[in-house]
Give the backbone structure.
Amino acid sequence: MSYQIGDAKITKITETILESFSPSALLPGLNPDVWEEHPEWTTPGMFSKSKGNILLSLHSWLVETPRHTILIDTGAGNDKDRPSMPVLNHLQEPYLGRLASAGIRPEAVDYVLLTHLHADHVGWNTCKSNGSWVPTFPNATYVFSELEQIYCAGLMAHDDRVDRARSEAGMGTPVRTPVAGVYADSVVPVMEAGLAKLIKIDGTEFLNGISFHLTAGHSINHASISLRSQGAEALFGGDVLHHPLEVYEPDLVSMFCEFPEYARTSRRWMLEYACRENVTYFSSHFPQTSTGRITWRNGQFRWDFI
């Protein structure tokens, strides 16, 4: 299924569906009564009855405009060594075949826009060729946060860039750090190939109606990406939200958020922005269409798939 936002065609490129997380594991502190209030979240396509776990989608968003072919986030990737995250370890998914089915060859991608540098958002930045990691999209410019790059490079090298980045971000000490090895195999080859464009995340228009808004907390410099065209707006929220339950319970924080209090603040900003601007929201992990609208009704935020 594709969506039209102004002159942009947006298509979901699925990598895989995960059913490995219980609701309380993904969203610690979740009140079990929420399931009685929202039985729609336990229907097929949303919930694994056999395992008692929620379904999460891993995917990219393909954005085709009259001028550019763009991918937003690149999933987990094949062959990646992720021993600390077994659900992502050495995947073998036909992601590039699905991209080809949408009519796109890797060489045709002009831009790869990254909301953040976590394992399940940068994996297809690179693929293995003759035993080495090389950029999957050789003609693309990979665009992502300068501060996030500095932080992840510092973590890999165990040097003072970590403290400098945390000081600049001003969010204190995180409760977790990004998965080891991700920066080395999925970002460094892009940097070495000269394909990276590092930007400040400040809401400035980057390209033809595209802006990166700061929604830090899930990661140190997480961005939500806005696309405006012909009076319509799409918002690609990255991991500000993992599941529709967080629309109804915005104080919940996922097990993967690095700076929980700031993740809450960013989530509330994004929910208010989505309502005020009447955006079409393109999620990173919601199942089914992964797309919908956030509204304010009867004293609370609400989610509707489209």
